[in-house]
Amino acid sequence: MAEPALRPEPADLVAAIAANLARVVHAPAETLRLVVLCLVAEGHLIIEDFPGVGKTMLAKALARSLDCRFSRLQFTPDLLPSDVTGVNVFDQRTNEFEFRPGPVFANLLLVDEVNRASPKTQAALLECMQESQVTIDGVTYPLERPFMAIATQNPIEYEGTYPLPEAQLDRFTMRLALGYPPLAEEAKMLDEQTHEPPLESLGAVARADEVIRLAERAREVYVEDSLSRYVVALLRQTRADSRLYLGASPRSGIALLRVAKAKALADGRDYLVPDDVKAVAAVVLSHRLILGPEARSAGLGGEEIVAEALEKTPVPV
Fold first, then answer.
1. Long-range residue pairs from 18-21, CB within 8 A, at least 24 positions apart, any chain
2. Against a cut of 0.85, is the pTM above it?
3. pLDDT tens string 21-49
4. C-alpha distances in angstroms, 213 versus 45, 77, 81, 113, 205?
5. What are the sequence ranges of the domains in the chain?
6. Which CATH class is domain 10-210?
7. Could you tell me which CATH class the domain 222-312 is placed in?
8. Lowest CB count within 10 Å: 1, 103, 107, 246, which one?
9. Beta pairing partners, 70
10. pLDDT tens digits, one per residue of 133-168
């Protein structure tokens, strides 16, 4: 009788997935690690960056790193909600309607250029992102775990686009940017992509059940009451900022705590410390803040506002 294979430690599995991504995407190691933490936190990711820096490649590399189903949607102005979620089709042979699931029924969903579809189509993602289910004609269909949506958008090209509403942005657990790689890395990337693209030979390093187990372990990370109050105090600090139209929501506090717990797990701990919250606060909160005229005229972004809020919020000891 063969002995059961040893399960990798959570920290080792997170590191293995991030290292696998680094074989394809030439981005900072911490950025790639945050992508994996978003997955472990059972969240959704929006990547906002210039064209051609590897946003789509990153999503494909994550899908190939996991042994699970991948689906891609190219959002365009003529896309309909049923093109996302699926549709009931009348079958003349059985004289009944048959449900044909849409691309959203996958473990990893890539939504390219999410702001190019109409608000009606964008709204088709709301239920699946918040509740991991889809309702069609009064019937609810659960989505298979793990489920993660990765959306991309271009921050400089707004002609013919529909900016995401606050309710949609609030459902994205974190926002990341890849940036341009250093000179040596970009030269290496050019050689790879014109010789043997590494994505084609990229293999899976984790199974779907291992990702689910990681997420469950992250949920079990111990959080002291003082740290929960610290997160709430941080949220309230943004709400009290007169330079903002809208501060961080309670949903953002849940997302912040989940990502912080995932970071603690990836660091090999089963308890949370204040530094876990501080390390991920900017990527989780900044895109949810609605800046007022004063902040915009001063050239401030969400990241700077979050950094100031962190400085003003007393850290529990």
1. 20/61, 20/65, 20/202, 20/203, 20/205, 21/58, 21/61, 21/62, 21/65
2. yes
3. 999 998 899 999 999 999 999 999 999 88
4. 20, 38, 32, 31, 15
5. 10-210, 222-312
6. alpha beta
7. mainly alpha
8. 1
9. 108
10. 999 988 999 999 999 999 998 877 767 788 888 888
